[in-house]
Amino acid sequence: MTKKQLLTDAIEHIDITSASYKSVVPMVESMSKMAFSARDLARAADIYDRMIKDTDCSVILCLAGSLISAGLKKVIVDLLRNNMVDAIVSTGANIVDQDFFEALGFKHYIADEKLKSGLHDGELRDLMIDRIYDTLIDEEELRICDDITFKIFDEMEPRAYSSREFIKAMGEYLEKNGGPKCDDSIVYECFKRDIPIFCPAFSDCSAGFGFVAHIAARQAKGEPTSACDSAKDFYELTQLKIKNPTTGLLMIGGGVPKNFAQDIVVSAEILGVDAPMHKYAIQITVADTRDGALSGSTLKEASSWGKVDTVWEQMVYSEATLALPVLAGYAFHKGNWKKREPKRFASLLDQPVEAVA
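^ thats the sequence. predicted structure below, dont judge the formating
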């Protein structure tokens, strides 16, 4: 098959705000009377709704895994639009390679069933097509995304930045150059609403290639370079915990975003602030304790570290494309977000350091 034939059917992002989705509320309430993962998911949905009803609570959304390419972008954008998320901690891939990539006008595509076997990956490579499980990306378009991140970083004043500041600059780029195609972008929506996005491992994505190109170009001319300061990321997110002690975590996947967000309680203590543990916590994951990795460690285990309270916590062992639309759709159609006001944490962090220390 030709490249054009392979990149035909685009991934469509599910819309939890549609009227047809209202039935999710009675469905989830019915699931609360079931067992196993159904009851776990129903309890998690109730906990998320409690976060939303608690107007003192700041909701931190953590994203790991291939989520935006899988069709979950609009779910997250709708949570942002309706004041259901106050900060994001994510892998770089979700924010740059997938969301920003689509905001530039590119798409992810459904892979033909035979491609999932992996037997045709050599042919895909020859066509400059990248595969994420059952999803395809045009590598030539991804290189354009790399080049644009280089352009954005290269035009910034040379200094150390948090990933949040770089991602804000990406939002500014979309404001100037995006047009209607970026209306459903996480990066752009957060930029408009002063919602901070942190990517603790920011170089592990297209942004990393942009950094490499920026450093090489500047060093060749003997000019100073910009750098991503992960410690500043940690400091900034800790400031949000200090300024807004009541917090809730909605974690999709695990990895670095999970640990980074949980650790801000301990970080606040290091700064001499007796910050309470995260009051609410949900994790949707397919990892479990058998693999010995952080992604599968339970929220109860996090309590032993002083990070997560155990009253309103729930593990949901499910793949994200199944569980997140149900959980998010339930909270959206319950409507308690209508009483929340935007926290605009990014504006707080843009103040001089002494103002937030």
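The first strand starts at residue 58 and ends at 63.
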